[in-house]
Write a structure and sequence with these properties.
Blueprint: H1 2-6, H2 9-32, H3 40-62, H4 69-96, H5 99-105, H6 108-121, H7 127-151, H8 155-181, H9 187-209, H10 222-249, H11 252-259, H12 262-273, H13 280-296
Length: about 300
């Protein structure tokens, strides 16, 4: 009976959520190699521009559907919050923390999403889900503590954690806002509107701050440009779009369960490509975090 139910939209949602987790892990590794060459605001702006063009081309090929003003407003708000602000603070966190630690640390966003779902969507938290929240927090704390033991209590690490918390708050709120709009909007179209709104939001914030940020110079390097393009394609179609597909066909909590497998993809990638030192304590903390996320979304397997 369970497998019969899976062989439809739910299976699509599960595969999309897993694909999104893998893509975000790959994206974190790729952007970690680039983030020190470009200001976080410039990185978000450039990524938004390239992503908007790619998504726009995809949207032209499948056609644009008319949507109401309220839905459009939700997607714009989601894009500004999750991309203009969330992505910028994500890149800032990535500058100050290792890629693997960032991936595990951002699992805390699942907890924030669940809490916001209670406050905004009126969902309830069961006892097992409360235990899941506690386990997630404990697991992430272990990973961060192991990181501090490796590198010492550097101020940059604390700055990275602060940026990460702000980013997670923005992204969690953005996910819940987008969920409301996805009931009546194709996922590619929703992703395009969110990305375009995020890019325009960055441009507006930057204009208001009157801060001069170098964007063009790093792209004069062909190697940098190609790496950046690959990273953007991975996170745009793998990360953003597949996450929207997962949220569309699954409950937010269920989608977050499969998204929580991201550290499992990031672990070997960080070791192989970034030569990051991942200790046994970090692995233990990561596994505790994943178990916590699964409990947090307790009961999905009985759907």
């Amino acid at each position: 009976m369970f497998f019969e139910k899976l062989m439809d939209h739910q299976l699509i949602g599960i595969l999309a959520a897993l694909g999104s987790a893998a893509s975000w892990a790959i994206g974190a590794i790729l952007f970690k190699q680039l983030v020190n060459s470009l200001h976080p605001v410039a990185m978000t702006l450039a990524k938004g521009l390239v992503s908007s063009v790619l998504l726009g081309c995809a949207l032209i090929s499948i056609g644009y559907e008319a949507i109401d003003i309220f839905t459009l407003g939700l997607l714009i708000a989601s894009g500004v919050l999750g991309i203009a602000l969330g992505d910028t603070f994500f890149f800032a966190a990535l500058q100050n923390l290792s890629a693997y630690v960032v991936v595990v640390f951002f699992m805390l966003g699942q907890v924030l999403t669940a809490v916001l779902a209670v406050l905004i969507l009126g969902e309830t938290i069961k006892e097992t889900e409360t235990i899941g929240i506690l386990l997630t927090i404990v697991g992430i704390t272990i990973v961060l503590w192991a990181q501090s033991m490796n590198e010492g209590c550097q101020s940059s690490s604390w700055i990275g954690i602060v940026y990460g918390i702000i980013s997670m708050l923005c992204m969690s709120g953005s996910t819940l806002i987008a969920k409301q709009a996805l009931y009546s909007t194709p996922t590619i179209q929703a992703t395009f509107i969110r990305m375009l709104a995020g890019m325009l939001g960055v441009m507006l914030f930057n204009a208001m701050s009157r801060q001069k940020i170098e964007v063009i110079q790093p792209f004069k390097s062909f190697k940098f440009s190609m790496r950046f393009l690959i990273a953007v394609v991975v996170v745009t179609f793998g990360g953003f779009w597949l996450s929207m597909v997962g949220v569309k066909y699954l409950d937010v909590a269920i989608a977050n369960t499969f998204n929580s497998t991201e550290p499992l993809f990031a672990l070997p990638l960080a070791v192989i490509f970034l030569k990051e030192r991942v200790t046994v304590l970090m692995v233990i903390g990561s596994l505790i975090t994943i178990c916590g996320i699964i409990l947090l979304t307790g009961g999905w397997w009985s759907v």
